[in-house]
Specification:
2 copies of one chain form a homodimer. Chain A is α/β, with parallel strands linked by helices. Chain A folds into 2 domains: about 150 residues, Creatinase/prolidase N-terminal domain (Creatine Amidinohydrolase, Chain A, domain 1), CATH 3.40.350.10; about 240 residues, Alpha-Beta Complex (Creatine Amidinohydrolase), CATH 3.90.230.10. Chain A contains 10 helices and 17 strands. Chains A and B meet through helix 3 and helix 5 of A and helix 3 and helix 5 of B.
Amino acid sequence: MEKEKIAQAVEILRELDIDLWMVIDRESGIITDPMMDYVVGNHATWLSFFLFSRTGEKHAIVGNLDVETFRRAGLFDTVSAYKGSPRDDLLRLLRRLDPRKIAIDYSPDCAAADGLTHGNFLKLLELLQGSGLSDRLLPAEEVIAKLRGRKSAEELRRLRAACAITLDIYGRVARKARPGMSEKELAAWITARREKMGLPAAWHVDSCPAVFSGPQEIGAHSAPTGNVLRPGHIFNIDFGVKVEKYCSDLQRTWYILRPGEKAAPPEVQRGFDVLLESIRLAFAALRPGARGVDIDAVARGHIVSRGYDEYPHALGHQVGRDAHDGGALLGPAWERYGNLPFLPLEKDQVFTIEPRIYIKDFGVATVEEMVVITAAGAEYLSQPQVELWLVKPGR
Amino acid sequence: MEKEKIAQAVEILRELDIDLWMVIDRESGIITDPMMDYVVGNHATWLSFFLFSRTGEKHAIVGNLDVETFRRAGLFDTVSAYKGSPRDDLLRLLRRLDPRKIAIDYSPDCAAADGLTHGNFLKLLELLQGSGLSDRLLPAEEVIAKLRGRKSAEELRRLRAACAITLDIYGRVARKARPGMSEKELAAWITARREKMGLPAAWHVDSCPAVFSGPQEIGAHSAPTGNVLRPGHIFNIDFGVKVEKYCSDLQRTWYILRPGEKAAPPEVQRGFDVLLESIRLAFAALRPGARGVDIDAVARGHIVSRGYDEYPHALGHQVGRDAHDGGALLGPAWERYGNLPFLPLEKDQVFTIEPRIYIKDFGVATVEEMVVITAAGAEYLSQPQVELWLVKPGR
């Protein structure tokens, strides 16, 4: 898949009028630029430079003992090995390519585009000293946002598969869950099912799944506890798997019936209905060119207009190889989100839609769907939750 | 173990006369500061600040939905949650602590101390703008070098256990290996044994183990290939496991007897003997206060004086939670190693000693031991290889 992504990167460089993209990494086992996995596909030991030009040239400069690894992989036109310092090889290559704009991986707003460490940035400046080339550096944020964001047919297939597996597990929860079971026990059961399929969790296993029950509000989004499921409570689960590197990230909400109840109490049902409405309204507003800040406002505004508190986070994020995949965000104009809510949406980006409503005395209702932006609007990758799922009491 | 490491960090801050150490992370699932695992022990979702003062205060500032995770963990005196921006909480805390020196995680020379991304660095400057605090920032290289380098009794126990398991597997290789077997097959057998014990590989599985055979020189340090073991060839293996997060990193060399041979040819034996001598000489020179550049020169000089090419890398690196653990290095004064070969060695640091010799027409001989610096000198953590291991021919 690296070849597909490199070809896409070259197109994006042309589109953005950027001459060169340079990924810089070292000791990948300790800390690694997330773009290494996309366009390099191997680990680097010593300070290494991977250059992709708008003309389609691809070059690697690596420590001498790494050279064979990168030559064998066959992704680069040239792989040069250095012993003392990469300076000469790097300057020679850059002078020949003579790029006016060199994109490197840093971004104050987006972790996925921020793979260059500060020490490696300083090292780069030191290597380029006196060459005049450091004035040509700019952040690769946009290159990376487009490269991670625009999903190919194959990437969409994997994302759909990850959604289907997650929903299959969710479908079994109502039969498995029972009052008296703790959040941790339910989480352990889900983890066991995932492991049986040999699939990695979509994010850190401590909170994948997150299982959250009951009327307190604080704690949703953190690890499951010993709190037990009780009749008359809501519980929600946030979970995802990786299928061939691609994540799902979906939430569902259940209500535990009290003895004698056939349905959830009206205030629970009403909160849940408002939650689903907010998803539908946001979904209907999605289209290429729309801004995330406006999509977020649709859902947030609806929930507030119905008398509920606004959710304390963004409406949705992109999903790809990481569950929080970065780039354009369906979020409010809060400083913590930087410029991401203002980036225009693009066809083939995949987003979550995940509002939440706190229903007093019952719990936190959350539903999270995954959608892909299409030419005309959007399409669900997950079969949406259309009704509140009920757990029967004494069994 | 986070508490032990935090207490150690506070001691180190006092020793180095640094008032505050600040670890900064966000979206740990995408890219994470390696020090998070040492002193935080949880993943951060939004831009987060973890502050450790020389007076022993510990504070966290995290995104609102992460707050419960960090409060439950109980490592911090205060955990403050922000919704819009961390600015107010961060400035309030820094103004109260009023540190003259604030160490943050960047280092041009050492990946393990370079966990702050460039984008997060820029974000930090933006948050501190106008406060006068940004002039007080300095790299945490020394804090991290000492914190990772100085192994506690418990850390040494785990490292010894990882060495013992690796050597146990190596002990079986001579019975398992036979001419005609490919490097890949032998590697797969080692991997299967490791997985059976439920232990992670010490570095990326593509090249852990690295199995490298035969007379060509290029390719050692890369992944095993379909090349087959042949009588009259040397082969070496580089492998390690993690025991409770702590790595081994050991190499051994074997010679495959030709029919009729009872021992390796004299030129192979001589090269191997010079290799072991170089290890013994370097080992004897180790002591607190010595510099890595001088230790490297002992082994390198011995090998060159006996007519062999110098090895194209450093003599040894530190080992801990990562196989290449950073900080002081037993390496030559090559630009790629920056200042690391000049840092004085300290008691309780763990190093590899891993020279190599190319023996023309036979292959690459490498032996890698692990040692710990003691008050008086050094001690082996691995039972050293004292003779060339032989594989019998036709079986």
